């Protein structure tokens, strides 16, 4: 990252102050994020990377002891008001976002004061980051605590390079809809302030993009979103682990000693091991139910198996977590009492942390690792277990609800809520031959070694820098005299010109009813004068049907494209340009009619090869909400050969073969044109803009909104002004 200083933002700083024997010491964190950030190459950076996080200590403690902290980063703590900190972290972050994003909707406890605190905390951190930022800095924001932060930073520094990574799942848009409208908008638009948004899996990415489209009406294409004149990419970056740390630790003396002690303690018994934080998402209770089902179904394993369960304390101050601890301990007692003997306990339970050597020893001594979260963004425990098995032995039973399941394909995958399935997989794992264990472990280790935590961090930063370098630039306003004059000059110098003109919203303003948008005399005169020039080939390229275009413009010496490319008129003759029998309309039409009944003011327009649901005359909020619902319905209903177009107050369904971009490309290649101009206002015209990118091809977006066009005009009046200038006597021909 030459010349790029990295500013990391996470909720916690990578260290903690602890009081030992009356003195203060610093305890460094050893989590995956810390490892990832330290693995990045800062050797060419001119300045030390910065780490910003919320302080869990007082200003006095910081000033007195900050000299004790390592110098890997410049650490900048943010000191929040105690009440804001409480409501921000325990409230909105962990009582709303955490349960909702993990599909525990009944655990969501929304309080207005908590959301306000979340906003204030994000604003406070953004102020700190803005004060620190310098040109060329990279800001990498982490996790659900700061989903509003990218937008806030962007508002303070519009050209900043900002990445965001979500370490938990991103849920279905249906769950996002549970949030109050202002929360949805705050979180989603907050994320869209970034240049790059990262998730663990493609599923999470798809859920995010669907939520943006359904809730904000912002479309996406190939993992990219056009929003507020910026191009934002979202993608999957499955977080890795420090593979060599766990793999090589197998032979460390303290690990060997701990492993030997475990083997001796449990003699000939098979060992199943689980370790998790105390959290309802981790499925610990379901794990215990499955163990009980296992002993019930396979009693021959009594006294031959020990289940070691380590639960690490977490968020004790939140009521749900305290309740979970009591439930786990009651279940452990019940199962030990039911199946245990005077000399054997089926479950060895520990509530507390274990040292690193103890953890690796448990990973490498057990016969089976049982990892069964009900929902988990990734789950690094599963990866750590696989990496630790230098002996190529051991079996991983893994919940299919984890992000890690996508990568660890040779684990035994289970549904954590199906206790009988888990019990059966436990038996399979315990009886698996050593050769099969080795085969499965080797496949998973190859993946983890190739895509470790360093690869994850490096690939994210590289993608972020690449995305920022290709950021969409705001189209140049043609209203500027120098820009307009330059385009006029290029037009005048050309001896062969192609003019591709959209109709509605480009040559004429939108009308409440489509049939009211007949061309005024001014438009007819301009088109006639343009077409009269032998150097010009004028084409109207529209979503209108061929009959309407013929009725309104057929007498002019121009060619026309109807229904976005379904029909093309050249040399006075129409031809159909796609193969489509329209049978799909029998499926789609009833759906559109149903939406008409539920959205007063909307109506359906049928064309030869498309159907359009218009909602311009409907109440604006109702129309928008219904249009999002319709788009989602259609995208899950339609066969692959059909496409849903989210237009300007219209949702249109047509064949995938019908595309303004394809037609524009074909027409532009038909002759060696010196000058190609395409003007349009709608999302359908973006296909045309994307297809015309050569030096002599000029694209113009009419009106506001994100676009791929090189130029922008405010409205129809400026389009007509531009075209009139082309026909002016002052333009040399």
TrEMBL record:
Molecular function terms, GO-annotated: alpha,alpha-trehalose-phosphate synthase (UDP-forming) activity; trehalose-phosphatase activity
Stretches of the chain forming a coiled coil according to its record: none
One of the protein's GO biological processes: trehalose biosynthetic process
Any one annotated GO CC term: cytosol
InterPro entries from the UniProt entry: Glyco_trans_20 (IPR001830), HAD-like_sf (IPR036412), HAD-SF_hydro_IIB (IPR006379), HAD_sf (IPR023214), Trehalose_PPase (IPR003337)
Domain of life, source organism: Bacteria
Similarity-based family: Belongs to the glycosyltransferase 20 family.
Name the record gives this protein: Bifunctional alpha,alpha-trehalose-phosphate synthase (UDP-forming)/trehalose-phosphatase
Organism: Larkinella rosea
């Amino acid at each position: 990252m030459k010349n790029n200083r990295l500013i990391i933002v996470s909720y916690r700083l990578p260290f903690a102050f602890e009081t030992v024997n009356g003195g203060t010491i610093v305890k460094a964190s050893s989590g995956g994020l810390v490892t990832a950030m330290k693995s990045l190459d800062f050797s060419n950076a001119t300045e030390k990377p910065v780490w910003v996080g919320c302080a869990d200590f007082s200003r006095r403690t910081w000033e007195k002891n900050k000299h004790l902290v390592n110098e890997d980063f410049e650490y900048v703590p943010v000191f929040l008001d105690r009440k804001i900190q409480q409501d921000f972290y325990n409230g909105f972050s962990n009582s709303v976002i955490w349960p909702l994003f993990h599909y525990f909707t009944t655990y969501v406890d929304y309080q207005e004061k908590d959301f306000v605190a979340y906003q204030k905390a994000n604003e406070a951190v953004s102020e700190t980051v803005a004060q620190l930022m310098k040109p060329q800095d990279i800001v990498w924001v982490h996790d659900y605590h700061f989903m509003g932060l990218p937008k806030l930073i962007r508002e303070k520094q519009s050209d900043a390079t900002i990445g965001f990574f979500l370490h938990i799942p991103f849920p279905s848009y249906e769950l996002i809809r549970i949030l109050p409208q202002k929360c949805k908008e705050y979180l989603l638009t907050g994320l869209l302030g970034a240049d790059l948004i990262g998730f663990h899996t493609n599923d999470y990415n798809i859920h995010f993009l669907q939520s943006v489209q359904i809730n904000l009406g912002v479309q996406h294409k190939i993992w990219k979103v056009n929003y507020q004149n910026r191009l934002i990419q979202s993608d999957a970056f499955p977080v890795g682990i420090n593979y060599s740390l766990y793999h090589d630790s197998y032979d460390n003396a303290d690990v060997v000693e701990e492993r030997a002690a475990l083997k001796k303690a449990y003699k000939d018994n098979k060992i199943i091991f689980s370790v998790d934080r105390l959290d309802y998402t981790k499925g610990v209770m379901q794990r215990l139910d499955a163990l009980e089902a296992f002993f019930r179904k396979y009693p021959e394993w009594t006294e031959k198996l020990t289940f070691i369960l380590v639960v690490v304390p977490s968020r004790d101050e939140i009521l749900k977590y305290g309740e979970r601890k009591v439930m786990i301990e009651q279940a452990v007692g019940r199962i030990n009492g039911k199946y245990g003997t005077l000399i054997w306990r089926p479950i060895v339970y520990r509530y507390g942390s274990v040292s690193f050597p103890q953890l690796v020893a448990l990973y490498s001594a057990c016969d089976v690792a049982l990892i069964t979260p009900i929902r988990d963004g990734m789950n690094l425990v599963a990866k750590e277990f696989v990496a630790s098995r230098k002996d190529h032995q051991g079996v991983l039973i893994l919940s299919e609800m984890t992000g890690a399941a996508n990568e660890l394909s040779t684990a035994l995958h289970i549904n954590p809520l199906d206790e009988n399935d888990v019990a059966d997989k436990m038996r399979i794992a315990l009886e698996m031959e050593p050769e099969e264990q080795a085969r499965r472990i080797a496949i998973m280790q190859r993946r983890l070694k190739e895509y470790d935590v360093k690869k994850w961090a490096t690939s994210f930063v590289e993608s972020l820098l690449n995305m920022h370098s290709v950021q969409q630039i705001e189209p140049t306003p043609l209203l500027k005299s120098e820009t307009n004059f330059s385009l006029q000059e290029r037009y005048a110098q050309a001896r062969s010109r192609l003019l591709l003109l959209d109709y509605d919203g480009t040559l004429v303003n939108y009308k409440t009813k489509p049939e009211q948008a007949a061309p005024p005399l001014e438009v007819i005169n301009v088109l006639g004068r343009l077409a009269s020039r032998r150097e010009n080939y004028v084409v109207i390229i529209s979503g209108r049907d061929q009959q309407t275009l013929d009725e309104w413009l057929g007498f002019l010496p121009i060619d026309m494209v109807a229904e976005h490319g379904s029909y093309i008129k050249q040399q006075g003759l129409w031809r159909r340009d796609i193969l489509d029998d329209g049978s799909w309309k029998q499926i789609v039409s009833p759906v559109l009619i149903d939406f008409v009944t539920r959205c007063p003011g909307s109506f359906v327009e049928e064309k030869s090869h498309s159907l359009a649901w218009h909602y311009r005359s409907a109440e604006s909020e109702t129309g928008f909400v219904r249009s999002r619902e319709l788009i989602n319905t259609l995208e899950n209903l339609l066969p692959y050969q059909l496409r849903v177009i989210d237009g300007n107050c219209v949702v249109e369904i047509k064949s995938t073969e019908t595309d303004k971009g394809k037609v524009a490309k074909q027409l532009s290649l038909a002759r060696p044109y010196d000058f190609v101009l395409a003007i349009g206002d709608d999302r359908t015209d973006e296909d045309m803009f994307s297809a015309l990118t050569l030096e002599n091809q000029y694209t113009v977006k009419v009106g506001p909104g994100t676009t791929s066009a090189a130029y922008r005009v405010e409205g129809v009046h400026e389009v007509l002004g531009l075209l009139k200038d082309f026909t002016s006597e002052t333009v040399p021909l």
